[in-house]
Amino acid sequence: MTAKTLSPLAEHASLLAGCAPAVLAEERPFVSQLNVRIREGHDAAAAVLGTALPDVCRFTSGIGDVLWLGPDEYLVLGAPEGTEQALREAIAVGAVTDVSAQRTTVRLAGPAARDVLAHGCAVDLHPKAAPPGTCVQTLYARTGIVLLVREAGEFTVLVRQSFAPYFAAWLADAALEYREEES
To answer: In sequence order, what DSSP letters do the residues of 72-88 get, joined into one string?
Structure first.
């Protein structure tokens, strides 16, 4: 007997689909995620990642997205196989941990994406306060998330797998008024 690997939102895809057309929400499951703690070796890690390590509340893109999570702590999204070992060898003092199973990834876009996120998030998402490249750890409806602000009103949300169905339900409920405006 073989086990099927289901994404955290596979059984809740209708919740995400229900956000349309105001918000296009799609899960991007199984994105690789490496938690990187660096005390020494920032330049060597940047060389492996193909981008400078970001400053406070920012992310950069190289072979994957590199998110600033805290002083000397980064999260690398979507890096190819072999990156974990390359980072371990490059970093003089620090640690690299594969945390891919911890969170799922949800892409949000559309005319009301920013407004729908504002329903459950205390972070000011106005483009002047949160321009593209912004990355924050925050709460969305009491659920811990990592939020990336991308170009043209597109967002990436990382949510713990155990909270993903709750997040999707909350998102669908917040999008309801914008769906009705479209009708």
So the answer is: TEEEEESPPTTHHHHHH
Phi-psi region of 10 (alpha: psi -120 to 50; beta: other; left: phi over 0): alpha
pTM value? 0.92
Coil/strand/helix, residue 83: helix
- 16: nearest Cα among 4, 5, 31, 28: 28
- In tens digits, the chain (183 residues) has pLDDT values of 455 678 999 999 999 999 999 899 999 999 999 999 999 999 999 999 999 999 999 999 999 999 999 999 999 999 999 999 999 999 999 999 999 999 999 999 999 999 999 999 999 999 999 999 999 999 999 999 999 999 988 999 999 999 999 999 999 999 999 876 555
According to DSSP, the residues that pair with 93 across neighbouring strands are 40
121 DSSP β-pair partners: 140
Give the number of residues written for the chain.
183
DSSP single-letter state for residue 58 = B
According to DSSP, residue 157 is labeled E
CB-based contacts of 11, cutoff 8 Å, min separation 6: 165
Residue recorded with tokens 């997040």: 167
